[in-house]
Amino acid sequence: MIKYLLLLVVVAILLNNSQSNAQNTDIDSLRRAIVRLDLQVKDIQLNIDKGQKQFKTGIIVSTIGYSVTIAGGLMLGRENDELGQALLIAGGATGLTGTFLMADAFAVMAGKKKRKGQ
Questions:
Q1: Which of 8, 64, 84, 107 has the most crowded Cβ, counting Cβ within 10 A?
Q2: What is the domain extent for residue 51?
Q3: CA-to-CA distance for 28 and 39, rounded, in angstroms?
Q4: pTM score, two decimals?
């Protein structure tokens, strides 16, 4: 009878240890998942910051470019016709460059494209 009681105590201790090991494993995997999510959030924030800078640059370049295009268009058919044509071409190219920068910033923000220096 004492043998069975001792065996029962040993089995109970082993079961208790295996349950606590399983709980420790669950807690460790939960901690790893939290750390992984934290790293992903930081990566997303970094992408947004870098893309935001590029987007603002694109807005400025586009605004300047399309303003020059408008000024060139207003000069057409007057005494500065050749200058107006040149401003139309230069402003259009500058505006398109700014538009490309803005569109490209979304790819950077989404993490689909890495910026230089990464």
A1: 84
A2: 2-109
A3: 17
A4: 0.61
Domain presence at residue 116: no
| Chain segment 62-89, per-residue pLDDT in tens | 999 999 999 999 888 888 889 989 999 9
Mean pLDDT estimate for the chain? 82
Structural contact between residues 74 and 44, judged by C-beta atoms closer than 8 angstroms: no
How many domains are contained in the chain? 1
Tokens representing 28 are 């460790």
Q: What does the block give as tokens for 33?
A: 């998942």
With a CB cutoff of 8 Å and minimum separation 6, the contacts of 47 are 108, 109, 110, 111
The Cα–Cα gap between 32 and 39 comes to: 11
Burial class (CB in 10 A: 0-12, 13-18, 19+), 14: exposed
